[in-house]
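Hi W.,

Here's what went into the run:
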Amino acid sequence: MEKSLNWREYVITRLIKASGYSAILFVALIFLFLLKEGLPALGEVSLSKLLTTRWYPIENYFGILPLITGTLVVTLGAALIAIPFGLGAAIFIAEVAPRWLRELLKPLVELLGGLPSVVLGFLGILVLSPSLRLLLNLPTGLTALAGSLLLGAIAIPTIVSIAEDALDAVPKSYREGALAIGATAWQTIWRVILPAARSGVLTAVMLGIGRALGETMAVMMVTGNAPVMATRWNSLFMPARTMTATIAAEMGEVANGSVHYHVLFLIGLVLFLISLAVNVTASTVVFRQKKRAERILS
Amino acid sequence: MTRPAVLKRNLSQRLGFSLLSLMTLVTVLPILAVVIYIFVKGSPAISWEFLSGFPRDGMRQGGILPAIVGTFYLTLGTAIFSVPLGVAAAIYLAEYARENTVTRAIRIAIINLAGIPSVVYGLFGLGLFVFFLKFGTSLLAASLTLSIMTLPVIISASEEALRSVPQSFRTVSISLGGTRWQTIRRIVVPQALPGIITGIILGLERAAGETAPILFTGAAFFLPRLPNSPLDATMALPYHLFVISTQIPEMPVQVQYGTALVLIFFVLGMNLVATVIRSRARARRQW
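Here's what came out:
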């Protein structure tokens, strides 16, 4: 009895440990397969051809610059919307709203995070882009701006929930101390709470932008799918095409192992590396913050 | 302090707070508007035939049964793979792992998995499951792809739930002669169960609403029948909504709104269940 129990515990412990390590395995596998399918592209299309401004795969033009600028324009627009509104809402929920309102607002913002992006894209086509077209008097409402608005909405829940956690984690004594020496609630928020939660807020912003950068369906449905270089300020009001949308729109139609297939995987590899950079930076910021907090407390 | 200075301070505070509440309102109102709008526009389309029939006339008429069943199968398939693996990984992190470099690497890997763009998961699934393991464009390949994407949500939520169980519970169990695994299985996991279930539902909710990861791994444009093996391709609600709102000319708007309504009903229903479980467990908790 004793022996069989030990044996079972041993197996179970091993299995649990293996599951724990599986996350590393999956990240490695994803990286490996993107390399395996994406790197051949560099042999088939020279780097100088890739870094050109014409994306027209049917005639073997694989210039990815328009896709990169498209992603930049749409993401930048989304960040300009999501950062102020996301942080504003986070501060309101964490510091200003009474308890009952907070309990109401938090699930609502989570709800937005749960809405499938394809639903937002669908409303983007039927409601948002026609109104943009009328409102701004554009030839088409399917523009980078429509994409930015939707991506802003998609990034907001990420920013709100992480920033709200960070603000909430600021020790109560900071708040009490500031109020006790005569600061108003507003001054306490700006001069004490926000600086103390700085790195958490920064993490929230980074992960929110990361979320926007990687979003696919909504942005593919409303940006008009035109891989043109964004060169001027008014690119925001013209159709665009992001890296993610290009993969989603074209991968279904390419032959397995063709040049086009490899280039799309290469774009996926670039996206993977960007998200890796964003997330590793964000997590080291959090680790550093934790360490500093430990030092202060000890 | 002089009186005008105090007034100015109060004024700027009031202005600031109004601005913040206005921003929150602008953030929150569209969410309600979206849900209500889809409900109003979509509910006329809902009928028994719509929910239980097959698409007809190039999907412009008839029902969306294959998409509903497909999303149900995909969610179930995702659960089969991601729940055991995710909960076991969370148990490892919360109960076994020491704080060392390897554990930090695992945590960074989990954060990364959560941040990888969904379409990149699609590429990975295509490369590994569809081509390399030769599952083809199938329910199996799509479920596996979705489960890896869901894993970080389940792991983080379950770990948090396990960690919130007080240490004294473990100490007592061990002191009564329980082994580590017995303690985890009989004491810690049951106590953490509501939190774990909430995490699982939130993860599966995300999987149910995703389109990009299944685009090239398992989604079918149109199927005249239900999938009858894990190696069949399948229709799915989010992909179906994408198809009928972008690929089919002269699509009746009502069918589109109806499909969107069924999809958000599915997803928000799961969200609601998770919220209820969480708040009820919090109210009942004795520690």
